[in-house]
Design a protein that fits this description.
Number of strands: 4
Radius of gyration: 36 Å
Oligomer: single chain
Distance between the termini: 91 Å
Shape: rod-shaped
Strand order of the largest sheet: 1-2-4-3
CATH topology of the largest domain: Alpha-Beta Plaits
Number of helices: 5
Length: about 180
Amino acid sequence: MKFALPLITIGICIGTYFIYISPTVSEVKGLSLKKANYDEVLLKSKELKDKRDAVLIDYNNISNADIDKLNKIIPEIFNSVLFANDVNAMASGNNLVVKDFKIDPQRTEDRDLMINQQKSNPYKTTIITFRLVGQYGQFVKFLTALESNLRLIDVVNLSIKTIGGQKSTDNSLEYLLEMNTYSLR
């Protein structure tokens, strides 16, 4: 009996180890790994929160003048009257006359449909066509002013022709400009 009691106790201990302790230890290891993953996610979320707060502070420090400049580069909504007024002011400042200012909404929509089939753009392209009449040197100055303007504009097509019925001493030409300008949707 003295010899059997220790063997029974050792057997119970070995059975308890394999039945209860070993599965519990592996479960604790799995839970420890899960906890480590959660801690890592929490740490990353705190880092993201800090970055978000830093970006928000930077965003709030942007001056109103800079925001106005950004809104002029790509405005929320394309305002054709304001754009025509800006173009006319630049042309008048360079002794040019604006004629036939046209916005082609159908071509703009068709172009947007073709582009949107491939991917969704965060901006809308508006196609504008107008004629200018004036001297070549003044037209070059106008293009320079258009280039240095804050609004994002792409000149797509340019044609130059002489004006019929004028004297050869008058150096006026007619310029047909087609351009794209952009706005947010």
